[in-house]
User: Fold this.
Amino acid sequence: MFPKLHLDAFVGRLAPLLPADFAAAVRALDLSAPMPQPRTLPVCRFWDRMTAAKAAGAHPLLGDLAELGPALGWVQNPNYVAAPPSPDFLGNYGYAVLAGPGGLVASEELALGVLMLGPGIHYPTHRHPAVEIYVPLAGEAEWQKGEEPWRTEPPGAVIRHESMMPHATRTLAEPLLAAYLWRGDLATHARITAPPPIVAPKISGS
Assistant:
């Protein structure tokens, strides 16, 4: 059975944390027509560990999120599946859509879901047209925008990435579980930013 009560509670607790534009879109979601599509991925091996992480200072949203676990359909960005950024990335990465295209409930205005990364994983610099919010819920991670220094963000922090802003994440000793929200272009998947070309040193006389 679809745990609609817990989705209502999760959305209700999340909205007050968000900037006004995202909060309004979250509150406008129609949660009355769920479309559960359960599916697991290798990264789901961390689910119980992360949703039970209250002792580690995790966010209260985890209580409601844990109840949604059996209904979640975990997926991966097809651009990363086609060209994984590292050999261990796909085994330690996945996201589940709560609301939006392919989610538990339909929305054309907002994508809301959860991202999970295993420990010691570098999610390299990437970008996308949608404006994005992340809210870490449990685990350890560092975040980077453009050329800014890496910074650690605690559970409950609100991390905003504007359209096409390069950004990256890397986990530490613990996995990461974070809520994410997209507004704008929901159809275009993120792409890894191409690394700068390697320039061979100039050899005298060549």
Residues 4-192 form a domain with the Jelly Rolls fold (CATH 2.60.120.10). Residues 128 and 142 are 19 Å apart (CA to CA).
